[in-house]
């Protein structure tokens, strides 16, 4: 492991300054493809933030409507229903959008939304409406001599609560800053109709705000990315073997159960296979742990090559399991065995023994079904001319008796 690290370090040192700058820019601005797990993590984080913002929008719009009723309807200043809806239509629109967004995000987080990628479109539209609302309110506030707090609040939501790629944050915040400034410069007027402009001090604060916000948004993205990466690594570690990176038995049970149902519906016959590297301990004693590890990795590679896309796992030690289509499986297990023996042709004692079991019930526990294939493989010990044995009715009686004894041995000991 250290040797690899030193080699990578040497290669990095040979990189030109231009290459290093390019790599830093690519990583810093997010010009790379995320894995599906990280994309899902970020998507769900955005949906959750949008749900919280939808709640804020709903509360805000309800408060604005109540305030309008108290100020204009109860006092009689708003004479008709038409006038009421004319002056509150923006509040009603945002209230409706907030309620719809709250419902959508709630269904998304409960897993009831099928087309999950559509969430990006919904969130973008919602964010755009929030920005438009903030710009509308703050434009009127600016003309009345008040601060543009509402607009800046909505910008904070769009930039910090949602996760954007850094280059998107730079482009988006730049466009928003320039766009709102142009809106004020070209259309804002005071009560006398004279043009209004930001003061030099306010303009400096405005520019500083957007520069700082851009840096914060980029920092938040990288922090969320690291969180997503750590979560992905933990998830992968929970379902894979540390040495070979093959799925572990926990993952195998999940994928095999799903594969059984799919193949049963398509009337495809399957078979469980249990692979045992015979005399692996002798090989390990001869070549050490490093040599043994390389043999296990080679075995993993052979299985993945011969059973692509099908459930498999490293069970433990030198044991691997596979659930595969029964058609022509003999050729594939022969290929695995021959490859291992050819790569280690000087180790004549080394062999691969395989047990097979054809499942009868697609709902049976894959972990228990594999035990039957393992039982068949164990019967091949001390049979150098045979490398495959299939679980049959005769073995079934012996296997059930063996299981009965194992399950009741404690009870028998207690009774004695």
Short description:
This protein is of the alpha+beta class.
Please characterize this protein's 3D structure.
- The protein has helices at 2-14, 17-29, 36-73, 81-109, 119-143, 149-161, 166-187, 200-239, 249-265, 280-306, 329-343, 366-378, 393-415, and strands at residues 270-278, 312-316, 319-325, 351-357, 388-390.
- It starts with a helix and ends with a helix.
- By secondary structure, it is α+β, with helices and mostly antiparallel strands.
- It is built from 13 helices and 5 strands.
- A 5-stranded mixed beta sheet has the order 2-3-1-4-5.
- α3 (36-73) runs antiparallel to α4 (81-109), α3 (36-73) packs parallel to α5 (119-143) and α4 runs antiparallel to α5.
- The model is unreliable at 1-10 (pLDDT under 50).
Fold blueprint:
Blueprint: H1 2-14, H2 17-29, H3 36-73, H4 81-109, H5 119-143, H6 149-161, H7 166-187, H8 200-239, H9 249-265, E1 270-278, H10 280-306, E2 312-316, E3 319-325, H11 329-343, E4 351-357, H12 366-378, E5 388-390, H13 393-415
Helix pairs in contact: 3-4, 3-5, 3-8, 4-5, 5-6, 7-8, 10-11
Largest sheet: 5 strands, mixed
* Number of E-type strands: 5
- The residue-averaged pLDDT reads 88
Helix share, percent: 55-70%
Please tally the helical runs, counting DSSP H or I stretches of 4 or more residues.
Answer: 13
CA radius of gyration: 33 Å
Could you spell the SSE succession in H and E letters? HHHHHHHHHEHEEHEHEH
Shape, principal axes of CA atoms: elongated
Residue stretches low in confidence (pLDDT < 50, at least 5 long) are 1-10
Strand content: 5-15%
Helix-strand makeup class? alpha+beta
Give the end-to-end Cα distance, rounded to a whole number of Å: 54 Å
């Amino acid at each position: 492991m250290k040797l690899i690290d030193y080699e990578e370090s040497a290669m990095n040192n040979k990189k030109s300054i231009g290459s290093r700058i390019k790599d830093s820019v690519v990583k810093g601005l997010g010009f790379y493809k995320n894995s599906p797990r990280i994309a899902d993590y970020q998507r769900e984080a955005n949906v959750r933030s949008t749900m919280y913002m939808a709640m804020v929008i709903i509360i805000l719009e309800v408060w604005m409507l109540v305030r309008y009723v108290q100020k204009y309807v109860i006092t009689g200043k708003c004479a008709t229903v038409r006038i009421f809806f004319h002056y509150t239509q923006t509040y009603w629109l945002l209230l409706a959008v907030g309620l719809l967004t709250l419902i959508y995000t709630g269904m998304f987080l409960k897993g009831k939304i099928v087309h999950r990628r559509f969430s990006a479109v919904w969130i973008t539209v919602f964010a755009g409406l929030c920005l438009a609302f903030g710009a509308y309110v703050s434009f009127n506030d600016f003309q009345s001599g008040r601060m543009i707090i509402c607009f800046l609040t909505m910008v904070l939501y769009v930039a910090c609560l949602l996760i954007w790629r850094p280059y998107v944050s730079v482009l988006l915040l730049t466009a928003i800053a320039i766009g709102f400034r142009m809106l004020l410069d070209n259309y804002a007027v005071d009560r006398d109709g004279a043009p209004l402009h930001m003061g030099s001090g306010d303009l400096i604060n405005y520019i500083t705000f957007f520069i700082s916000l851009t840096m914060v948004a980029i920092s938040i993205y990288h922090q969320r990315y690291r969180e997503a990466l750590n979560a992905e690594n933990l998830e992968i570690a929970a379902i894979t073997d540390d040495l070979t990176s093959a799925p572990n038995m926990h993952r195998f049970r999940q994928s095999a159960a799903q594969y059984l149902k799919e193949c049963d519906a398509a009337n495809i016959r399957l078979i469980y296979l249990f692979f045992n590297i015979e005399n692996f301990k002798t090989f390990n004693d001869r070549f050490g742990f490093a040599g043994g590890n390389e043999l296990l990795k080679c075995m993993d590679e052979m299985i993945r090559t011969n059973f692509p896309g099908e459930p498999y796992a490293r069970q433990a030690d030198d044991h691997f399991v596979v659930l595969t289509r029964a058609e022509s499986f003999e050729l594939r297990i022969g290929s695995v065995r021959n490859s291992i023996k050819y790569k280690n042709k000087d180790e004549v004692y080394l062999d691969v023994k395989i047990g097979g079991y054809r499942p009868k019930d697609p709902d049976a526990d894959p972990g228990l079904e594999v035990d039957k294939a393992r039982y068949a493989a164990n019967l091949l010990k001390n049979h150098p001319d045979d490398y495959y044995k299939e679980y049959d009715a005769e073995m079934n009686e012996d296997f059930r008796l063996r299981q009965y004894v194992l399950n009741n041995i404690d009870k028998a000991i207690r009774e004695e």
